Amino acid sequence: MNKPTIKNLGELKKSKYISLNLKDELRKNLIHNLQNNVNAFEGILGYEDTVIPAIERAILSGHNINLLGLRGQAKTRIARQMVNLLDEWIPYIETSELNEDPMKPITSYSKDLIEKMGDKTPIEWMHRGERYVEKLATPDVSIADLIGDIDPIKASNLKISFSNEAAIHYGLIPRSNRCIFVINELPDLQPRIQVALFNILQEGDVQIRGFKLRLNLDIQFVFTANPEDYTNRGSIITPLKDRIGSQILTHYPKSLEIAKSVTLQEAKLSDFQKQNIAVPELMRTIIENIAFKARESEYVDHKSGVSARMSITAYESLVSAVERRMLINNESKGMARVSDLAAIVPAITGKVEMVYEGEQEGPYKVAVSLIIQSIKQVFVDMFPSVVKMRKKDKEASNDMFLEVSDWFANGNSIDIMLNMSEKAFAKKINEIEGLQTVIKSLKATPINPSEVLIFKEFILHGLSSVSKLSRKEVETGYAFSDLFSSMLSGEG
């Protein structure tokens, strides 16, 4: 829809424009969407049966909303997408500071202007994209920032006294009239500032330096916050919580499949990376499983949470590791390997907060441990019988890894370097006897022929994760050898 051409109040009246307050506008458009199966929250995955229905119920109820959840749970993104439920264009008094509805002026200035100019009062049109205001709550936010204050310079320029209402400089909240106003990290707002929100939420009264103005502000408030037991910097005071209509709990993806979809959707890859670098489903599963393992880890602070951004940045780092190797070897195509997971350690160490034991262990060791745990989990899921095998069963006929174990037990070893070319990588992996036999046993897991080498490498890392092979980290890659021989030599 193009911007309407109506330019004054008289034309607006003749157009039979119906003025709605913001919450009614959101409600009207949501009802239309629900009746026509239109999703206003595109790209918000995993919340279809939990968070999104709760938000829709809150909007139908005309509630202000508090989204409560750990970091990286799409709280701000949800708030931003509420803009999709607004009318595309709305009229406002052209010279109004507060986006006032021409049909319902709220300031003395606009009321006087309409009384003076009547139907010739000029109006403008605001697109819904302009009707979103966001403020990060920090301890230095003042009442003047949010509500307003007397502006001496304005009073001087207008040659008016401070007692004149025109001397007021309105803050962010009044200027967000008829908009969605979001305060992120609400507990960080000082209690005395939170108190200033009471009447705005409930009655619409605003007090600025002795002025008591009855501004019937039309605002949809959305707050975001971490759980109070984690936010040591402050909390949401009880009277404010009481005035927020709906508090909605967010959560992390509940399944690996949803988590993988989120990561693939959000990862920022270049066109070259998308077209020339393949990431097998196996690698995507391992990466996503790292976040699940981190959320269970004894070394990670569970109250802090593990953001979905960790998996996203890990995926981006993995792809970039492949691209770097391609550039070094002058290759045009590349595929992510299990050994490339060494490149994602920086994406993990910066995204998890440790408890005391984790700090003692060290971020690097914790990150490596999480990667190994993830590989082990995926390996055991793929080969459940491996956990039942014992060293004394090594000669058992049902040990599908016997040929591989024997190859290493006969004194063979291999080094897989991170920057190894595709040709050299294939040659090294194919030297190992028995891996193809294991691959053939995976009848329940069809393997793309182009990914066979990656699965063979995965078997090596998997066997080392369950202590059936020795994996030694070297400066530029990994060295695999027989576990027993490594222990005798002191390298295991």
Layout of strands and helices, then pairs:
Elements: H1 9-14, H2 22-35, H3 51-61, E1 65-68, H4 75-81, E2 89-93, H5 108-117, E3 123-127, E4 132-136, H6 143-146, E5 148-150, H7 152-158, E6 168-170, H8 172-175, E7 180-184, H9 191-195, H10 198-202, E8 205-208, E9 211-214, E10 220-225, H11 238-243, E11 246-249, H12 256-266, H13 271-276, E12 277-278, H14 281-296, H15 308-329, E13 334-335, H16 345-349, H17 356-361, H18 363-382, H19 402-409, E14 414-417, H20 422-430, H21 435-441, H22 452-465, E15 470-474, E16 477-481, H23 483-489
Parallel strand pairs: 1-10, 1-11, 4-7, 7-10, 12-13
Antiparallel strand pairs: 2-3, 5-6, 8-9, 14-16, 15-16
Helix pairs in contact: 2-3, 12-14, 12-15, 14-15, 14-18, 18-22, 21-22
Report on this structure.
It is a single chain. With 492 residues, the protein is of the alpha/beta class. The protein has 3 domains: 9-249, Rossmann fold (3-Layer(aba) Sandwich), CATH 3.40.50; 252-382, Helicase, Ruva Protein, domain 3 (Orthogonal Bundle), CATH 1.10.8; 390-492. It is built from 23 helices and 16 strands. Strand 8 and strand 9 (211-214) form a beta hairpin. The longest helix has 22 residues, at 308-329. The model has no long low-confidence stretch (mean pLDDT 89).
